[in-house]
Predict the structure of tRNA adenosine deaminase-associated protein.
Amino acid sequence: MSYFAAAVARVDGGWTASEVSLRGVTDIEEVADRLRDVEPDADLSLLFVEADDTYLVVLRLDEGEDLRVFGSDSAYAEESRLGALLVGDLKTSVTGLEEVDEPRASGDDDTEQPAVDPEADPVGDADLLADLGIPAQKLLALCAHEGAMPADVTAEICQVLGCVDEVEELREV
């Protein structure tokens, strides 16, 4: 299964981006170490792992600590060794979040679409980007949007964060 892994790190109010090789990693801590190595002094580091145009995993480190992980679908753990390593230990399904969501403002551009793809089983911490302007419901909606590829979701997230150009440059290499 092919993958693309892009790390973005916030330092001194700006963003840097680097492609990260996950070849040979044996556990989630090793993945976190590779993310830390991208920019050791970053106050915030994110790793976007897109696999086979199907799965997205987002990992977050704050000041190099407190690893948080979100996966767009738990099936990734069954599909590949890397998927098992990234999301295999995540037991928290996040599909029930739409039931506790507050009523939406009438000007919201979300339609009557379900909060998550009924075929997918998102797992982990869907709120890991909430303080950056992407609450759990928005992240789930991005992942569930019909026809959206993991690269599209990563681009949407990076657009909100202000680092879309840095990540897109990595794709062009």
User: Anything to note?
Assistant: Residues 150-161 form the longest helix (12 residues). The first strand starts at residue 3 and ends at 11.
